[in-house]
């Protein structure tokens, strides 16, 4: 296969990604070491005698110098061993993976809904600029973004899962394997809560950009050469106007992965967000380290994905070749 | 050429505009952008619409196409195309008319093309919109159209995106798009503005060739009177939304019968004449708040009280020649003449600033990079070939002289100017100021140097801080470079404003309240604030209208006479350079290819590039046909400059392999070594002096 500038670019980006992950792992590790409290004491309780603490420290490798601990940990990560949860006494990986999967479904589902609603409302807003339609759309979006998720989430539960209309379950998460209807019905309220929060950003970005493109010289050129309205909209306006939205979506995706805490707490979904809270509350350092690393990784991958997609769609982006 | 065009003109009217008024509504006021414009364009005619910015010429073009945006509308008057009133058409009827019967080529090709569609697809799109053809047939036709407009390798370039083509090629794509459905009427809005002069002459040739081939009627809108003179049959001169004068091209240029037309012609610099471009005083009126009477009265030498009353109608001067002026007979009697004779010059003194072996290279490979020859490694780290923006330049500027530095875009002229001022650090070579090496200056000497050497930038709209008052802007260099106290500084600011003909009331104004010409005056006042001995003027007039441009050149010349200031005037426009420079240097791809006194440059022997540049400037006299030397291709990239003589890839007089292999040094011409005229070329002097034959053949279609 011929090596193109794109491959080199991809290689470069991936190596930056690896570098980023290394840095993140180092920072995560350092901060957990700096945190007060000895893991062995935490596990055994304050009344434990020195000998058993020392024995446990030896078992956990805590008697080793910090750099050996770090390399043991990183080395373990490469072999698929992220350590053992201090509290649960299970491999960290086994705890994290199913929850990651749950959170991912939540995030991806929300992203899709935000994409559809945010983009179409944004485009509509731009096309109907300064009309009543535009104002209503902006108004709704602002209300959504200015209410915190514990307010909207709680209101949604009260409205749709409680005394008023009991349509959806108030909490929990059901895997798809148990049927599409229960799966979706559990998913709708948390997704709606997140959507209300995020849509405004996407909508705003889309509206601004589409308005700018509508006023561009090349859209005028297209209209003055007699191209149909539909084609002007799809080939000229949307094609260029939606590019920056990709970046906003990717940023929101990364942000969501780290910010599911509140929503998962409200709807009692056991995903990554709740796991973080659990790990912090219980000083479960190996668990905390790995979860944070996974969230950082999701963020980095989302951005890489956005940049690649952007580059694919915008021919002006070159990969360090001739241009 | 003129004769030919007149013959193809018939009596049948294609476009007929009758007392058209266009308004844009903005919050709080209405801009009356076009008022009472009537014009007829006959089949086969090339009709030129000339005017400066704000004259309403682009609005007129869009009004013809019934495309005025959300806030613009035709308030009265009609536009008829082949007898059909275009205002009566429905949106879908207009859609089938646009691009098919009337095509529009917009100003600024780069922004008028969709950046994310291939150019072939953009041409094909027009064809598909109006003809019942398949996608692949449309693509095939698009390739043929690109071939028609001389896009090299059209099969390949059809798949390229706009940013991958040069400015001239982008313009060609727009023209291909417009002609793809063989429209009856082609509207070209500033088709050559922003292009280099050698590219401009190729586009003009192309327009003329295609006009003959497609038998298209053309409306050509431009501020460039030379192009109007060269390629149009009839001309409309617009000012502040009104038609000032209209007639056939010869009567307009031979007997201009409107003070504005006369003023425009006097303000346009001409090479090889002793004409000193003469400014039109004042500025264009506010189109939201127009007084009665003639819109030009405030700037007109012939205006009387009577001119400021009522509405001014078009008056007939002769057959097919009308003017909107009550005093036109007086204007014809004693027309506005440009000043003659060159500007006052102080005699040049000793050496002020000089550079030897100066190089400025951007993106130089790092030491690590040079260890690896492998290109994929270089690409991995974004190591592209370095940009040789200034390549081994020797230059000497003497006290009180004005040196012109001419080059097309990408010639490295601005970089050279900035490197001389130590705004950029030279990669190699030395700059000396009054005999001292600038590179050796300590910080206090450097401060002194910066106060002695100032710069005026091209774009006055972006070179003044929008959040500072004019007073603060001019005061800043006084704070930095002088010990004057607050009161002394304030007095000096007023004094400086006075010198650039602005009153003390400007002290408290902000840049956005000023016109382009006024802003450039402020930039000049700022440059003069610390009493500099040397000023680099980087395209000081190219963002300005021609009537204002002459004003700034006058001002620069007055200040030079008063203070004996030395100028390095950087410009792409040889006419501007020729108007005020003592010596001229011609730059191509980072190298000086010719230098000499003003007259040396405009007379043989010529460097082949200078010859091409000079021939590319169209003649302001419609009786004198221009015959530009058309250079092949575009200027090569500075990342990949040709070996040997950098001009050999485009040189019409290339001798052979010597041009490809060895880089010519600047050699003095004439008898003595003392000659100030130097040319870097392998040709001998005879070859550089005699006319070259057969070069214009390719210009004829």
The low-confidence parts of chain B are 1-7, 694-701
User: According to CATH, what is the class of the largest domain in chain A?
Assistant: Mainly Alpha
> In what range is the share of β-strand residues of chain A?
under 5%
Instruction: Using the CA coordinates, give the radius of gyration of chain B.
Output: 27 Å
Count of DSSP H/I helices of chain B: 27
CATH topology of the domain at 351-602 in chain B: Rossmann fold
How is the biggest beta sheet of chain A arranged? none
Walk me through this protein's architecture.
The complex is a heterodimer of chains A (323) and B (701). Helix content of chain A is 75%, strand content 0%. With 323 residues, chain A is an all-alpha fold. Chain A folds into two domains: 20-78, no CATH class; 100-313, MetI-like fold, CATH 1.10.3720.10. In chain A, helix 5 (92-127) packs parallel to helix 14, helix 8 (180-214) packs across helix 11 (243-258) and helix 13 runs antiparallel to helix 14 (285-313). Chain B contains 27 helices and 26 strands. In chain B, helix 5 (119-130) packs parallel to helix 8, helix 19 crosses helix 20 (486-499) and helix 20 (486-499) crosses helix 21. Chain B is globular and about 75 Å long. Classes of the chains: A mainly alpha (323), B alpha/beta (701). At the A-B interface, helix 1, helix 9 and helix 10 of A face helix 3, helix 5, helix 8 and helix 15 of B. Chain B: One of its GO terms (cellular component) is plasma membrane.
Provide keyphrases for this structure.
heterodimer; A: 323 residues; mainly alpha; MetI-like fold; 2 domains; 14 helices; 75% helix; globular; B: 701 residues; alpha/beta; Rossmann fold; 27 helices; 34% helix; 22% strand; disordered N terminus; BPD_transp_1_N (chain A); MetI-like_sf (chain A); transmembrane (chain A); transport (chain A); ABC transporter (chain A)
